[in-house]
Each structure stands twice: as C-alpha cells, then as structure tokens.
Specification:
Layout lengths: L22 E5 L3 E7 L10 E6 L5 E5 L4 E4 L1 E4 L5 E5 L3 E8 L10 H4 L3 E2 L3 H15 L9 H9 L10 H12 L7 H7 L4 H12 L3 H11 L11 H7 L5 H12 L3 H6 L4 E5 L11
Parallel strand pairs: 1-10
Antiparallel strand pairs: 1-2, 2-8, 3-6, 3-8, 4-5, 4-7, 6-9
Helix pairs in contact: 5-6
InterPro entries: Homeodomain-like_sf, HTH_AraC, HTH_AraC-typ_CS
Keywords: DNA-binding, Transcription, Transcription regulation
Protein name: AraC-like DNA-binding protein
Length: 282
C-alpha cells in the first residue's frame, strides 16, 4: 500500500463509530474515488471506466437500457448510459479515465465488465483498500500508480498514445474549464481538422467533443464543497450560463448541480495534480 499515512498508525485500527458517515472524495487527473451519498440519479454517462462498490450489501444497475441487475460490484464502460439504485445510503464509485489505460491489459472485470460482475477477489481487495483509506489520517495517494496498486492489485498499464494527441490531452486536462477548439488543436498538431479528429478518436477511443464535454463536467467535482453561488461556479467551470451548466451536468451525472452540491455538504475532498482549481482543499 503506497498511500502516505504520515505515521498515523491506523492501518490495523478499528474504524471509528461514525465510519459509515465519513463521506470523502479523492481525485486527480486520472482517477476518482467517491464515497458518499448516491441520491436518486436518472440516466448518467461518465467518460471513464466506472466501478460501483456497495459497502456491505448490494446495488441495482441498468446499463444502456438493459435489464436491472443486483450485485455488490458493477462496472460500466466509458460513455455508456446507465442507471443505479443503491440498497445502502452510501456507495463507493471509482473512475478510471479511459485514455490513461491500455484497455487490453486491464483486469478482466474492468476490461469486460458491463453491469454486474462476478469477481469476489476483486471485491474483497477493493473493500479492504477502501477500509484502510477511511481509517487513515492522511487520505492521499502519492500517485495514480499507488491508487491502482491499492484497488486493483497493480498499476494499470498506461496507453501508448501519439505524441500529438498526448499533448492535446495534457492541455485539456490541465485546464478542463478552458475553451480549446478542435481547430486550435489541429493547428498545433500540424494536421487538418478532419485528420486530427480522426486521429484523436482512433487513439483515445472517444470523439474529441465528447472528451472535452466530459472533462469539463468532471471538473465540477473539484468545486462540490465550495459555498459559492452556482452561477459563479458555472462560469468558473467554463459554462456560458447556468442553464447550459444545469443541462450538461444532469446529462452526465443524472443529477442537477443543486442536488450534487446539497449531497456534498459533509464531503471531505482531497484533490491533487493537474487540473485542480486554486481553491482551498484538504
């Protein structure tokens, strides 16, 4: 385990009595771990591999309009619409950004998962990693590799990308609220727009516009503990107005921004790396 405990001595300790009420999120540019309220989302659609983990019982998931499935752990591929209902008040959701991993080398339950997965060893590992994290004083992983080691047993192999596409990804992820266009990226890559868009999708598996939309919506997670006016947050996050902001966020998360912020009031947020706005975090 490569999380920095800073001498906390809590790795083998019993969880505190209020452990089930400890809501938290750890986020960097490549991964997200959310432990908190699910709410009542409608259809949602994330741009990364999404792993849902029930803390003790089960949840129900419906992927791309298919049948509802009951399970303790489920996986949804990137950009696939789904619905989820939890049998518990809180749930754990892990997000792995698709462009950061070699899909063919992913663990089987991630690579082939589409809804409920039967992976008891993976379930046990993830629950144990989550338990250690919840009992730690310093809830930060030193790196993406350290996070992967804890929850997946080893660092996930990175995807080898064309240098021109990698430069675009780095640019967008370092400033997800910016308004970089395909035209600008094509010029920087010395390609025509059509050739750039084709190359981007071939390399990342995602259309350029979908990736940019997801990164902007994902950046909202850095703001959820802030008390600012939602209109101001919409502008800070790169949306032209509050109406567009509300519609776009609901399309991704299945919840309105108001509901997301209401459910995050007691959330402890730990953010690091590229793309973090200059806000006051733990």
């Amino acid at each position: 385990m490569q999380i920095d405990f800073q001498g906390s001595g809590l790795q083998g300790a019993r969880p505190p009595p209020d452990a089930d009420r400890q809501r938290m999120m750890w986020i960097n540019a490549d991964r997200v771990l959310y432990l908190g309220l699910l709410g009542e989302p409608t259809v949602r659609c994330f741009g990364g591999f999404s792993v849902y983990l029930s803390l003790r019982g089960t949840h129900r998931i419906c992927v791309d309009g298919g049948d509802w499935q009951d399970c303790a752990v489920s996986v949804v591929p990137p950009y696939v619409r789904h619905r989820i209902v939890s049998g518990e008040r809180m749930i754990c959701n892990l997000l792995v950004e698709a462009e950061t991993v070699d899909v063919a080398a992913l663990p089987a339950h991630l690579r082939a998962g589409r809804g409920a997965v039967d992976a008891p060893a993976a379930l046990q590992r993830m629950r144990e990693a989550l338990d250690i994290l919840r009992r730690a004083d310093n809830r930060r992983y030193a790196s993406t590799a350290a996070f992967d080691e804890a929850f997946f047993g080893a660092p996930l192999r990175t995807r080898a990308l064309d240098a021109r596409v990698q430069a675009v990804l780095d640019r967008i992820k370092s400033d997800p609220n910016g308004h970089v266009s395909a035209q600008e990226c094509a010029v920087a890559a010395h390609l025509s727009v059509s050739r750039f868009l084709h190359l981007f999708k071939a390399e990342t598996g995602s259309p350029f516009r979908s990736f940019r939309t997801w990164q902007r919506a994902r950046s909202l997670l850095y703001y959820v503990t802030q008390s600012s006016n939602l209109t101001d947050i919409a502008l800070d996050a790169g949306y032209p107005d509050s109406t567009h902001f509300s519609h776009s966020i609901r399309q991704v998360y299945g919840l309105t921004p108001k509901s997301i912020f209401a459910g995050s009031r007691k959330l402890a947020l730990y953010a690091s790396g590229a793309g973090v706005p200059r806000l006051g975090y733990h």
